[in-house]
Amino acid sequence: MRTPRADAARNRDQLLAVATRVFASADTEPSMRAIAREAGVGIATLYRHFPTRESLVDAIYRDQVVRLTTGAHELLGEMPPAAAMRRWMDLFGDWIATKNGMLDTLLVMIESGEIAHAQTRTELLTAITTILDAGRAVKDLRTDITAEDIAASLIGIFTVAPRPEHEAKASRLLNLLMDGLRPAARPT
Questions:
Q1: Among residues 51, 48, 47, 57, which one has the least CA distance to residue 99?
Q2: Residues of 117-154 as b/e, b for ≥16 C-beta within 10 angstroms?
Q3: How far is CA 123 from CA 43, 68, 101, 116, 145, in A?
Q4: What is the residue-level pLDDT of the chain in tens, covering all 188 positions?
Q5: Alpha carbons 95 and 81: distance in angstroms, whole number
Q6: Mapping DSSP to helix (H, G, I), strand (E, B) and coil, where does residue 182 land?
Q7: pTM of the model
Q8: What is the DSSP string of 98-148?
Q9: What SS3 string covers 55-103?
Q10: Is 186 helix (H, G, I), strand (E, B) or coil?
């Protein structure tokens, strides 16, 4: 398999970024033509990189999961664990928001087995655990919280305060969750 030319790789990355943004801001699934128009390319260019809607949704979904899983390690390299956890929660919210405009296609792909939902869940729980373990080691995060607890809390928050229309409410709820993840101060 040939490596794509640099300009072709840039075009693909640009299309992926624009499509992610379009899907995140859409109430219903946008047309491929609308995505191409937003990206400033012809429909043929979009189809050359992503021959089907499913291939585009798959690429976005996988890109977002990679960003979440690698993001855990990157954030820990840049900030203390509690701050990394809070920032990771924002990344998770972005991922959830992106799925809004591609939900119908995504559900069909999960149902057909094209996307392995269980594998994604495992990868995301591992990312959360990575941050939790780092936080526990420096006593920055509670020891009795599991990755599943955090994942369930995040799903709940973004269900009642979907982004981007409820950004402030989601942020407030995420801050409350973070307060609950910090160890209680010991009386002196």
A1: 57
A2: eeebeeebbebbebbbebbbeeebbeeebebebbbebb
A3: 33, 9, 23, 11, 18
A4: 556 677 777 888 889 999 988 888 877 788 899 999 998 888 999 999 999 988 998 898 889 889 899 999 999 999 999 999 999 999 999 888 877 778 778 778 888 887 777 888 899 999 999 999 999 999 999 999 999 999 999 989 988 888 777 889 999 999 999 999 999 876 66
A5: 21
A6: coil
A7: 0.80
A8: HHGGGHHHHHHHHHHTSS-HHHHHHHHHHHHHHHHHHHHHTTSS-SS--HH
A9: HHHHHHHHHHHHHHHHHHHHHHHHCCHHHHHHHHHHHHHHHHHHHHHHH
A10: coil
Tokens of 11: 């075009």
Bond prior to 183 in cis (omega within 30° of 0): no
